[in-house]
Amino acid sequence: MLQTNYIRENKALIIERYQKRNFDGEAIIDQILKLDDERKATQHKLDAQLAEGNRLAKEIGQLFKAGKQDSANMIKEQTKALKESGSALKELQNKISADLLDLLYQLPNVPNEIVPPGKSEDDNETIFEEGTIPVLHEKAMPHWELTKKYNLIDFELGVKITGAGFPIYRGKGARLQRALISFFLDQAVENGYEEIIPPLMVNEASAYGTGQLPDKEGQMYYMPKDDLYMIPTGEVPITNIYRDVILKEKDFPIKNTGYTPCFRREAGSYGSDVRGLNRLHQFDKVEIIQIEHPDKSYETLDTMVEHVKGLLNKLELPYRVLKLCGGDLGFTAALTFDLEVYSTAQEKWLEVSSVSNFESFQANRLKCRYKNGEGKTQLAHTLNGSALALPRIMAALLENNQTEDGIKIPKVLIPYTGFDMIK
User: What is the pLDDT of residue 269?
Assistant: First the structure.
């Protein structure tokens, strides 16, 4: 969420940067500034009435001490009218503040200056590519056939128990999944991240804090009886650890990692892109999150991208890094890099990670602040990345490493799986 002072001081810049998102925010911004003016004017009246009330209270006390009860009682009547007026002003102030907050929630984050303009994923910029795309044998299969052939994942049984998009991993498929989770967590811990095991459900305040509400409400599973949401990503509960927290400069950088199942309704998803593991309602992911000093957040973003690149290098998967254009940028992000692996059997790129800097956008919602060297309270910057999302990593590993004799396991995973081949 943007700060009103920042909007007021940078109106022209914000409107210009929103063009990268293909978002016309001028009308909303004008409403925000108008409401902010009304809020300040109302607060000024409230402060004046409070000062007048204090003055009258003091005068009443002096009159009573002087034995002038009639005069004191007359002024007490004035204070009653003042209180009634003050209550009405307070009610108006609350309404203005609520309306202002609703409008602020509608504004997305301001794209960083290096975000390329564009309307969709077709306009994203490829900035790095690594690895060799393997050549498969003539009878190579997509992962949804491989998992059936080798009894690794049962999609049909998942439909029976829950529904589409809730697969069952079994045998060596389950062990490979567990191996990937352990490998990703170990790599994060080795790189200085503290491991967190968070709740899988969050309250409304947490969902608002990281920006899932009100933007992505339709994508989350909601339990109205308990007023709780199943998490769409570990980013939500882990980042909310720092909601309503005031940090010190020496605390930076704060580095957390966590493995969680993730739950997404994915309403409206259909077609070939959702086959097998390509798009699920429940999937596993290891997340890396940093709370950082504003002066260092973009340097930190680069190190997080390098961390994910290192994982993909060790898994020996061909991959590329994309800089997202404004039209494909998430609501809360100022800059995002996507990492995609190439699926040879499907002959397409699969997104496996998004690494984003939210600058102070989430921190303002969260009230995640720090005291600088002068003792002044300022907003921190928040960042997060998938390191990594497992379904498409699993898909690419199975498809790219298939041979006529079976599926080879990358060397780095063999200590975790206990086997080097799926036959």
Answer: 53
Strands 194-195 and 254-263 turn out to be: parallel
**Average pLDDT of span 196-200:** 98
The pLDDT mean for the chain works out to 95
Output the CA–CA distances (angstroms, integers) from residue 247 to 230, 299, 370, 421, 422, in the order listed. 28, 20, 4, 48, 49
Distances, alpha carbon 154 to alpha carbons 164, 280, 309, 310, 395, in Å: 11, 13, 30, 31, 14
208 near 239, Cβ under 8 Å?
Answer: no
Using a 10 angstrom Cβ sphere, with 0-12 exposed, 13-18 middle and 19 or more buried, the burial of residue 185 is: middle
* Rg of the chain taking only CA atoms, in angstroms: 27
What single letter denotes the amino acid at residue 393?
A: I
Angle at 215 (CA atoms; ends 210, 217), nearest 5 degrees:
95
- Tell me if 223 sits within 8 A of 287, measured CB to CB: no
Distance CA 165, CA 327 (A): 27
pLDDT higher than threshold 90 for residue 141: yes
CA dist 385 and 353 (Å) reads 7
Q: From the DSSP assignment, how many helices (H) and strands (E) are in the chain? A: 13, 18
| Other CB atoms within 10 A of residue 74 CB | 12
Cβ atoms of 282 and 261 within 8 Å: the answer is yes
Please, what sign has the CA dihedral across residues 265, 266, 268, 269? negative
Q: Would you list the DSSP string of 44-82?
A: HHHHHHHHHHHHHHHHHHHHHHTT-HHHHHHHHHHHHHH
Closest CA to 378 of 292, 257, 281: 292
